[in-house]
C-alpha cells in the first residue's frame, strides 16, 4: 500500500471502525439478554434471576462505557480526515447521525444510569421498563448509524445540486426506509445478539467447568442458547436478504464476493472455495455449488448475475456519460442562473453518472481531457480487490454455520437433557467465544471494502473525499489512535476478566437462601422449609 493521504485515511478509519465494532455487538446483544432475564425475575419473583440480571448487567455496563469512548473518537474523523466528503454529502449523511445522538444515544445513556442506580428506588415493573428502554436505545443507535451507512451503499432520497455542488436530501422517507439500510440493520443487530449469546454461554460454561455459580450458569446457558439459536438462524436468513439487495443495487460488490469474472448462464453457481487471481481475472481451483448464487442474487432460476467483465464495460459507458455531465456542470458553474436550458437538460440526462467522471480526476485534472486509455483505467478502478472480499465472505459464512450448530446443540441439551452438558461441549463453548467477533469483522470488510472505489456508491469516489492533510499528520494520528484504542481494549479485557473471575457478588445471600428452600421443597414435597444458615 502506498503511503498517500487517501490510503492512510482509509487505514485510519478502518482501524478505528474495526476497533469500535469489538464493543458494539456485545452491547446490542447483552442489553436484550439482560432485559429478558429481568423480565423473568419480575414474572417469577425468583432472586436467582435478579442476581443474573445484575451480574450480566455489570458486564454490559463495562462494555457500554468503553464502546461509547471508541465511537465518539471515530465520528470526529468525518471532519478531520474526510472534509470534502462531509461538505459534499453532509446534508444527507449528517441527518441520521444527528438523530442518533439526540434520540437514541441520550435515551440509552439516561436510562443506563437508572438501570444501575435504581434497583432500590424503583418498583420491579418500573425498573424492568428501564431495562427495556436501555435495550431499545442501544438498538435505536445502531438503526440510525446503519441508515447513514446504508445510504453510502445505496444513495437514495437525494440528488446533486449543480448550483451548490453538494448532495441535497429530497426524501427523508426514502433515506430512512432505504432497503439496503434496513437489511444491514436487521443483519447487524442479529449478529450482535449471537455475539452476546456466545459470550454469556462461554462464560457460563467456564463457571460450570470450574464448579462455580452452578445455578446462575445453567440458567444463563438456557437463555443464551435459545436466544442465540434464533439469532444465528436470523443472521443467515437476513444475510440472504443482503445478498439479494446487493444483486439489485451493488452488482460489482456481489460479483467480487463471488469471484465471478464473466457473466455465467443462469442460475449462477456459488464458488465454495478457490483462489481469485485479479491480474488474470480468473478464480483458480474453484469448487462450485450449482444454482446457489443465482438463487441468492436474483431469487430466480432464469435471471443472470453480471460478471466483473460485463460490469466494467457498463462502467466505461458511465464514465463517458459522466464526462458529458461534467462538461455541462462546468458551464452551469460559469453561468449559474444564466445557464441555457439545453445545458441544464443535458446535465439532468447524465447527472446520475457524474461520479464516474470524478474517477478520472485520479489521472487527469479535467475529465473532459481524458484519453481513451484513461477512461478504460477509470472503468477498471470500479473493481475492488477481490481476494479479501472473497475470503472474508466465506470465513463469515463458515463461522455463521458453526454458530448455528453450537447454539443448536446447547439448546437441545438445555431443553431436553436437563441442562446437563458434557465437559467437551463446555470447553468448545469457551473456545468459541471469539468466533462471532471474527465473523462480524469479516462482515464489515465485505460491506465496506466492497464499496471501493466509492465513499458513496456511484456518487463520490474515495480519492476525492479526503481532507488536505500531510502524510506525516496522518501517520501521527494513526499512531495516536492505535495507542488510545489499544489502551481501551486492554482496559476492557482487564475489567471483563476481573469481574468474570469475581463472579456475581450482589444478592448472593438471598439467592442462596431461596435456592436452599427451593431444593428442600423439591426433595421432600412437604411444604416446610428449614432455617437457612449462610455458609461461613
Keywords:
2 domains, 536 residues, oxidoreductase, elongated, EC 1.10.3.-, Cytochrome d ubiquinol oxidase subunit 1, 20 helices, mainly alpha, 71% helix, two-stranded antiparallel sheet, metal-binding
Account of the protein in words:
By secondary structure, this protein is mostly helical. It folds into two domains: about 1-250 and about 385-520, no CATH class; about 265-385, no CATH class. Helices cover about 70% and strands about 5% of the residues. The protein is built from 20 helices and six strands. It has helices at about 5-20, 25-45, 45-75, 75-80, 85-115, 125-155, 170-175, 180-210, 215-250, 250-260, 290-300, 310-335, 340-350, 355-360, 370-380, 385-415, 425-430, 435-450, 470-500, 510-525, and strands at about 160, 165-170, 270-275, 280-290, 455, 460. The protein has a two-stranded antiparallel sheet with strand order 1-2. The protein has a two-stranded antiparallel sheet with strand order 3-4. Helix 12 (about 310-335) packs antiparallel against helix 13. Keywords: Cell inner membrane, Cell membrane, Electron transport, Heme, Iron, Membrane, Metal-binding, Oxidoreductase, Transmembrane, Transmembrane helix, Transport. It comes from Donghicola eburneus. It is found in: Cell inner membrane.
